[in-house]
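Inverse folding, one chain.
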């Protein structure tokens, strides 16, 4: 089986889907790996590193994609890339088909099997494949580093001949995987940390990291059976803001990462709440792509409003390209191992992971609701 690793095409993307470490293990299993020349340089992996790991390096994207049985990618492909894939090939990536509707229609029309990694269930079996968790870990860590860099003061408490410096105060809103990593990183840098989430289960995790938990108990019934947060109604959202407001006015840094599955992110910080913050304080909004947790966030931009620096980067994991790629690559290796037996990719639709992740197969977009959203009839064509 030939596995292709194309260079990522999204502007600013520095990660690569497979690292030399993983390639070495795949080639030891007699899988062939081919890399688009320079695909790893953003993450500091040279073509020679890949050659030493047993991969071959290809300069022609046409040949790379046209010959591949399996394509390992991070972001969704462009339509031009899909046109180069051969019928019956398998693509593994973060697809988000509603955002990449045209590419998804083409993937179905060309008979490509697409495994969308964002659909992996959050179960213990799928944990080793869970790219959302690994990349959120990178993003949560990086958010704190970005905030520390923009903050005009120290993070840790310092006792010096020039006087005592109080530790920075950090508030984290939304403590899923990214938020929890932000709490841990801010603690390691010596900040005093508070965190808010509507899920009561987050309390124990936050407290185990030496941070203070605010919220939770007053938002009963805020969690789905799968452990995701539900959307708050107007009254509950007002209540959440009332809990957050007094903390927010005293902190130096606020990291926000409150997300809802397939919905706009909740606005937890209004413009008026930003006005109440300390001058020089910093908000890093990790929910920018989903509309932002702060009303004043401009997705993908840094701005200063009412003396507060508001930072929104849309691909923070890519700002840590070496380790983010390593983690993604190990997840990818486990996904390949899950679907590939004896050099053949097998799709058993009785299996939950297969049912959830395989979006296009044998010329069809499989899920009826997605077919409707993409305005496709059964048969895969518009
Ligand atoms: P996410 O990115 O979907 O959301 C981030 C956080 O925002 C969540 O903690 C959520 O509760 C919170 N949130 C949503 N609306 C909010 C609001 N109005 N106010 C405050 N906070 C709000 O979360 P995630 O990182 O994908 O994790 C989602 C769940 O899945 C968590 O329970 C997590 O522990 C669980 N999980 C399980 C596994 C596993 O078992 N394999 C792996 C990863 C995550």
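Residues assigned per position:
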């Amino acid at each position: 089986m030939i596995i292709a690793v194309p260079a990522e095409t999204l502007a600013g993307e520095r990660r690569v889907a497979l690292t030399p470490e993983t390639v070495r293990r795949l080639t030891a299993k007699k899988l062939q790996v081919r890399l688009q020349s320079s695909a790893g340089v953003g993450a500091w992996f040279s073509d020679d590193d890949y050659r030493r790991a047993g991969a071959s390096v290809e300069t022609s994207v046409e040949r790379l994609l046209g010959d591949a049985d399996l394509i390992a990618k991070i972001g969704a492909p462009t339509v031009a890339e899909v046109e180069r894939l051969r019928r019956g090939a398998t693509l593994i990536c973060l697809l988000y088909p509603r955002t990449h509707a045209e590419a998804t229609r083409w993937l179905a029309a060309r008979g490509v099997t697409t495994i969308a990694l964002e659909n992996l269930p959050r179960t213990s079996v799928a944990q080793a494949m869970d790219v959302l968790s690994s990349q959120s870990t990178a993003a949560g860590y990086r958010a704190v580093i970005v905030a520390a860099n923009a903050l005009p003061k120290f993070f840790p408490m310092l006792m010096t001949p020039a006087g005592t410096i109080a530790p920075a105060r950090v508030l984290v809103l939304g403590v899923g995987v990214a938020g929890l990593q932000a709490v841990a990183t801010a603690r390691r840098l010596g900040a005093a940390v508070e965190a808010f989430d509507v899920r009561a289960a987050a309390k124990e995790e936050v407290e185990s990291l030496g941070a203070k938990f605010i919220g939770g108990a007053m938002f009963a019934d805020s969690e789905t059976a799968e452990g995701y947060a539900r959307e708050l109604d107007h009254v509950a959202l007002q209540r959440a803001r009332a809990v957050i407001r007094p903390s927010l006015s005293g902190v130096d840094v606020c990291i926000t990462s409150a997300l809802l599955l397939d919905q706009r992110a909740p606005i937890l910080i209004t413009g008026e709440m930003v006005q109440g913050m300390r001058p020089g304080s910093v908000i890093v909004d990790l929910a920018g792509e989903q509309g932002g947790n702060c009303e004043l966030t401009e997705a993908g931009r840094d701005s200063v409003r009412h003396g507060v620096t508001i930072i929104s980067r849309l691909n923070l994991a890519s700002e840590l390209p070496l380790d983010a790629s390593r983690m993604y690559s190990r997840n990818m290796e486990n996904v390949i191992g899950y679907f590939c037996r004896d050099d053949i990719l097998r799709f058993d639709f009785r299996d939950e992971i297969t049912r959830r992740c395989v979006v296009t197969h044998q010329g069809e977009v499989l899920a009826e609701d997605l077919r409707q959203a993409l305005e496709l009839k059964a048969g895969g064509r518009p």
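Residues 131-150 form the longest helix (20 residues). The pocket of nicotinamide-adenine-dinucleotide is lined by residues 122-124, 127, 130, 132-133, 136, 173-179, 196-199, 202, 227-229, 232, 240, 257-260, 266, 268 (CB under 6 Å).
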